[in-house]
Amino acid sequence: PKDYKVIYLNDDVTTYEFVISSLMNTFDYDETNAADKSQEIDEKGAGIVAVLPFEIAEQKGVEVLLSARNEGYPLEIKLESA
User: Fold this and answer.
1) Using only C-alpha atoms, what is the Rg of the chain?
2) Separation between Cα atoms, residue 56 and residue 43, nearest integer Å
3) How many Å apart are CA 35 and CA 20, to the nearest integer?
4) How confident is the prediction along the chain (82 residues), in pLDDT tens digits per residue?
5) pTM above 0.85, yes or no
């Protein structure tokens, strides 16, 4: 199966803490790499957080979106063919 990029899109509401914890919990980042990636997303407006087979990319994206909505964050995630 073809791989897909999981891309976080920056917004002005979702906290660094939420993004960092989602990267650590869902994508197995360590704290330093999660903080670096969060800063990249903030500075560039978006960031590729993983490249995975479509089903896994979609599942993890949905997990993070549901978690964000449950906490009141408007975080958006898109999948793009790698």
Assistant:
1) 12
2) 27
3) 6
4) 799 999 999 999 999 999 999 999 999 999 999 999 999 999 999 999 999 999 999 999 999 999 999 999 999 999 999 9
5) yes
